[in-house]
From TrEMBL:
This is Carboxypeptidase. Its EC number is 3.4.16.-. GO terms for biological process: proteolysis. GO terms for cellular component: vacuole. Residues 1-25 form the signal peptide. InterPro entries: AB_hydrolase_fold, Peptidase_S10, Ser_caboxypep_his_AS, Ser_caboxypep_ser_AS. One of its GO terms (molecular function) is serine-type carboxypeptidase activity. Keywords: Carboxypeptidase, Disulfide bond, Glycoprotein, Hydrolase, Protease, Signal. It comes from Panicum virgatum. Transmembrane segments: none annotated. Residues 46-76 are annotated as: Disordered.
Amino acid sequence: MGRNQISYCILLAILLLAVPPLTNATLDQATLLRQFIASRSLAQSADGPAETDPWADPKTSFGHLPTKCKNPKGSKEADRIEALPGQPPRVNFEQYAGYVTVDEEHGRALFYYFVESPYDAASKPLVLWLNGGPGCSSLGAGAMQELGPFRVNADGKTLSRNKHAWNNVANVIFLESPAGVGFSYSNTSSDYGLSGDWRTAVDSYTFLLHWLERFPEYKGRDFYIAGESYAGHYVPELAAVIVAIRKFTGKNPTNLKGIFVGNPYLDDYKNEKGSLEFLWNHGVMSDEVWAAITEHCSFGPSEDLLCHKAKASFQTGNIDGYNIYAPICIQEPNGTTHSIGYLPGYDPCINYYVPAYFNRLEVQEAIHARVNTRWSTCTSNLHWHWKEAPVSMVPTLSWLVRNGLRVWLYSGDMDDVCPITATRYSVQDLNLTITKPWRPWYTPANEVGGYIQQYMGGFTFASVRGAGHLVPSFQPKRSLVLFYSFLKGVLPPAVSLWQP
């Protein structure tokens, strides 16, 4: 290892130690992803290139996997939720939750929460939602803070309806993955040190096979995978497993039609470059610091100490990386929390309410979870030895597009964790021909919801105006419009219906 690499490792170790320790209760996707990026950079500098990439040839790597599960266990009726504690009156859709064992030998089981549509569920597609981290819960974030039918109230005991929930237009599964996240677990403790992209994808695929046996009415139903953040890895990789098996065996157990990924983490180096450029573009970083970064940094695997000093030479201040214009949550010494500002429809302290809710015994019993589980939205004990994570997801995305899958990426334009600037760099790397150029898209309320562009093969990239990292939290109406357009396979309206 050269002097520059040694200096870099020392600097990075100092930066990691400088991060204040956080309990799992206060961890969120942004914090966890940044920890992951730092640990990944340190490992790459110390150990050299990553292990062989299993995603280079998905058909060879995954085509041999089974197309049906052996000895399916569990039942739909056993997983039915009578009512969630504290739910509002007149809930008009079915809810289910429970475990699916994906490895009998190790006792590895994944927890899911499933909500059917209140409107003609039998005709609606099936959607699997995955949150990122790696190590964050789709139940705690996706279901209870973003696109699910409920939001947890400030008392940590009751729920309110989300009228812009995605189950208005689809039947949605929220999966806690990998084992060790949320209520998902393994009886073999060494499993937690073997987590990575490969195992997460294969376990998620195994989950789907078993789940479809438990809910056979969804076999053959149009199926989509959606997610955000590090699900920029999870979603394309699970899709690659499914497409590879379909190509290898000629069988189609899940009827996958497309993927829909928001504010995705796609490229180690492009994400870092895009994040710093975003901060400069939005006035958080000075021109002088940005000039020093662009002079000394190549945004590749080999950076010298001058680059790392330049990147460490400014402060963002106490702002929310998820949305640099959103209010933040303050926790007082007595444990109470409050927002320092106001953003309509958004409560930055909800990350405290959700753990309080899921750590209630009556809630754990109602959703058929293992009782007395110490549940947290995110866990930090999985990613330090994370395995099989490609540096870039561009090759996998390109492979999926070439194989006819509907692929849409979208970005809330106020996020610095996985910013729109970074996603644009990866979209450029796909090198696809533009078929429908960049233009505004409108909601039924005649407001500009964002901007959108389509490419050869149907690949689509969209922004959601005024949204942060968790797009459905910040812009629930706009996210639902874009999601519905994705399901229909048509771009949202190009013109406003309102005329002055």
